[in-house]
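no rush on this but wanted to send it before i forget. theres a chain ive been looking at and ive put its sequence and its fold in token form underneath. please have a look and point out which stretches look like helix strand or loop to you. thanks a lot i owe you, the record is right below:
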Amino acid sequence: MGAMAARIHLKRRTRPPGRRVSAATIGRWFLSFALFFTLWEVIGQSEITVAIVPASEVLPDVWDGIVHGNLVSATFGTLEIAGVGFAISAVIGLLVGLLIGLSKPWADVLDPLVNAMLSAPIAMFIPVIAVYLGLEFKAKVVGVVLFCVFIVIVNTATGIREVPQSGIEMARAFGTNRRRIYTRIIFPWASPYIITGLRIAVGRAVEGAILFDLFLRAENLGLVIRNATGSFDLSVLLGSVFFITILAAGLMGLARIIEWRLLRWKTY
């Protein structure tokens, strides 16, 4: 009985199906980027609106900002805030999510608060954070935590709740101890939800760091955007927005790759 119970776990696969990127897929990606830049250039050259500067003028400014300007140092400053906030959010979110998912009384207490905070616009807390925590690094990290932590909590709690009770009851019937139930059944089953929540939190961490860099003490990428806006330099402004978009998309893509690697055993 004990040996059989020890082998109760989710069946793993060595290679997840559907995760190979074909040449056709890569070709469509390049086509998508080509269409985007072509449309950007055409609209900019047509002068339909002065707010759209052609890509041929914006991209050199982006490169100059990377090589000779402060774009790289500003990026590292923003990513430092995002990274610290994300790490704190991950720890708090996982712990609270596990508590909600495993305990009905705690779920009754915390669920309404978490759902309320998840639906509330975090930007409205900027004045409150500024009053109580100031305008510096600590306040910005707290803002990033507010952006991320509730996503992690909800996904973690949802993953725990989705674990089939039949598997847990079967494990208990075979005499499996609590530690093995957690490590062989609950956590593997909930891991797709948990990892997805963490991946979404990565993008929100960057978003929150830029927002608080912009509206608290202006520095890093927030200062770059504010300076470009104040001087009406549309080329630098669009270049900064484009660079931040590529940065956030790249981080989300990296998080997606890590998610695929961690969940390579999962049967789809």
In short: The chain has eleven helices and no strands. The CA atoms of residues 3 and 174 lie 9 Å apart. Residues 178-215 form the longest helix (38 residues).
